[in-house]
Amino acid sequence: MTRFALTVLFVSACASAQVSFEDISKGPSEDWLTYAGSYPGWRYSPLRQITPSNAKLMSAKWVYRVPDARGLRMSPLVYKGVMYATNTNAVYAIDARSGRLVWQYRDVRAKGGGVNRGAAILGDRVYFTSSDNYLTALDRRSGALIFSRQFADVEKGTTSTSAPLIVKDKVIVGSAGGDSGMRGFIAALSAANGDEIWRTWTVPAKGEPGSETWSGFAEWGGGATWLSGTFDRETNTLYWTTGNPWPDFAGAPRLGDNLYTCSLLALDLDTGKWKWHFQFTPHDTHDWDAQSWPILLDMEFRGRMRKVVLHANRNGFFYVLDRITGEFLRGTQLIDKVTWASGIDDKGRPVLIPGKDPTPEGNWVCPSVKGATNWMGQSYNPMTGLLYVLTLEQCGMYNSSSQEPVPMKNFAGGGATEEGGQVLLRAIDPKTAKRAWEYPMTGAGRMWTGTVSTAGGVVFTGDDDGQMLALDAKTGKLLWHFNMSETLTASPITYAVDGKQYVAIASATAIFSFGLFEPAEPLTPPKVTLGK
Amino acid sequence: MRFGAFFLIALPIAAQHGRYVSESQHPAIGDPKAIAAGAKLYALSCPGCHGPDGSGGRGPNLVKRSLWHPLRDEAIFSAIRNGVPGTDMPPTKLPEDQTWNLVAFLHALIGPASENNVPGDAASGEQVFWGNKAGCSNCHSIRGKGGRMGPDLTNIGGSSPLAVIKESVLEPSKDLMFLGNEGATVTLKSGKIVKGVARNRDNYSLQMIDEGGELHLLSMADVNELKILDHSLMPGDYRQRLSQDELRDLLAYLSRQVARPKGTIRKANNS
Question: With respect to CATH, is domain B14-111 assigned 1.10.760.10?
Fold first, then answer.
């Protein structure tokens, strides 16, 4: 009887835990509850056990080899000691202390492949999207399927790769596939059952405002939304970026600015209605999607406090916008070498240098097609006031093609290659756009790792050579490194279990979790009996 | 009330033994008329050795095979036409089109139960599933309702042949791959007791889901004693507990559980 009572008490204590909108709104703590850690997109944690003085004592705690993984890009979630990681059409619940699998869900019926950037969590449910556009809700404790609802047709060129963003009772999902023709959208689905609440298209239909910026191909014009966005609770506004116009490298079939591709959109959470938009790269012909984080910040700008959104763009410039009005405040070079535009004018439009479009014989332009930065998570640290952005100093050759564009045939209207270059982690003061420090990396310019920074004063990121790094957030001084010997294309997180801080990141094929070194304690195996 | 009426379907890893390679382009495969014609042919000659539902007898179980390599339609065709030398399986003199009808039937039989018209009243089976007599939902969930200790059955019809589902209900401990489904009782050094299913364990940690469906992530350093059952937590008395009609209806209900039912594919307005 006593044993039974104890069991009931223990179970009761566990049963009350549920993730709420308020929990997500508070930002990271021991848990990490949304892709970027918090709604403003800071990838910043208040954890402070690991510091510049003890980071040298970090060591690997566990590795979980993700089945069939080849190039993981996901950023995991952690709730109550369980890590939720994704691969294409699969979710893995992992004991965040030991790295042991708790459950897995693999949707073998899903069509197609591609990458997956992560899951979302609310209540007792873990959500993810499949490559063929199903939103699937799973029980966080057992992995049991609660619902799986399709929100877009894969046969119209749309796939899904981004982590859903959960705000209040809505699961916000995006769309991918803009490199082979599709029409981008952002949709809000019911967290309860997957019903569609609203859908906002990122490329206007014929006759709608903005359609005059397309001479053709708007119905397949891209503007994919393959990275999840950020949310301003105060104004109930979603901030979401859009991808390139299609065909990527052929501008002639789609003359005009091609709204609303390569843009940042501000949408009302409840209705999906447009508040404002800002287009970074009008009539893009270099595949410079605007997919990098719109980071929300209240900061002093030219003598007065402003509610701003920061955006380090693939086109080589670093933008500051007023996030209430969309007003352009400042645009400065993110990287040293930009050859397609001489700057950004007073209205935020690039000042073009003629002759930089792709040509049949190839045109050498900086930045390369990979962009000055990309989708990997940047981090803003309020303790240092610095934004940590992985940047790529690289140029590339852009070719155009005279082939007839055929949607969904993987036709990009040309192609691009890149050569050489260097990845540098840069710490930027958003007030001045000046660099506080930079950490140059050795490598082939192939790795795309995000960052996470902490109240302990450490920035964690990945090297261009497959190493996990800890850097001093104030100075950029290298504190610790660990060779994972794999291509890194994911963003790290940090979490805590039982008062111990961990830092986790996915390599190409596995998830690594690190913490401060602890000597192994002798473990006496318990009595294990097999019985009837 | 130790483990009570827990209904843990032992979804065997062995379900994959019957996995079919759907490479054949023969028009009979998937054709309802061909399958129906094949069913008649099967009923005439095959149940004596392979059982009425393909679950075997004197001859091998056609649905849950012991070999890991997947089946091919052409191999089945060849076995029917030519027999299997050195065994009791004789060659047949069926014409080619009728042989393909039989292959189409076997293909359907080995495929997911949801793709076959499993007999029974699914509505009555639903009541059996959620009722107290069977108690299935104490441990199993469908679309988020029910217990969490046993395997989720939301897609059981979409992933398993009928014969596998049936065996899992009636003989839950047969061929059970225990790891991940072990019934376990843990006594912690603190004195707490946790009962449930060990979803994973090694010498250093234990991941359990308890009778209430909650997760426990335990370090073996905190465990005093671990008792592991040598059989499934699911009761093995459903042949007695349920009438034949109830069992048939339950199987009809389970066979219709599919995560992605046909006809639900959305055609988004992309224009």
Answer: yes
